[in-house]
Amino acid sequence: MDLTTAYGALSRTPMALRALLTGALPEALAFREATEAWTAHEVLCHVTDGEETDWRPRIAAIVGEGERRFAPFDRLGGHRRYGGWPTNALLDEFDRLRRDNLTYLAHLNVDAQALARTGIHPEFGPVTLEQLLSCWVVHDLAHISQLSRILVRHFGPDVGPWRKYFSLLTPTHPSA
């Protein structure tokens, strides 16, 4: 993993989320692909909560001198904490938290030795800082992809005969 590339990807996520969600209609933000699937707004609540309760605390556990055991992450905690926030306020909060977290990360001056340090994940056991940072990037990209898919499927019924050209709109698509 290249730390500069990871840092760059993480720093672009707020812009990507804004580009996808700013100005989206309420019904698009509340659209569910399936009964138990998250809405776009719930995804945004989740990633915002992760900035406070997941990534930074886990980085701190790995690079600190104290307890290296990670607290379990409540994947639905963001829905409770941020569910009532308007999208624009939530985008602003995510942006603020992400900037703070990247500033924190930059001040750690992470080197190869730090990337090899481990923390204890509640499910996986020992994980390295390098794995955690890679996971953070992949997590962002996966949720950007998820948000795009949600919006595609929300607007999909309106494309008429072009539906056959969009794999995300066909029932045989693996993530359909």
List strands and helices in order, with pairings.
Blueprint: H1 3-21, H2 26-29, H3 40-53, H4 55-63, H5 77-82, H6 87-107, H7 112-116, E1 118-121, E2 125-128, H8 129-155
Antiparallel strand pairs: 1-2
Helix pairs in contact: 1-6, 1-8, 3-4, 3-6, 4-8
Word description of this protein:
The protein is mainly alpha-helical. It has a single domain, classed as dinb family like domain (Four Helix Bundle (Hemerythrin (Met), subunit A)), CATH 1.20.120. Helix content is 60%, strand content 5%. It has eight helices and two strands; from the N terminus they run H-H-H-H-H-H-H-E-E-H. Strands 1-2 form a two-stranded antiparallel sheet. Helix 1 packs parallel to helix 8 and helix 3 packs parallel to helix 4. The radius of gyration is 18 Å and the shape is elongated. The two termini are 31 Å apart. The mean pLDDT is 93.
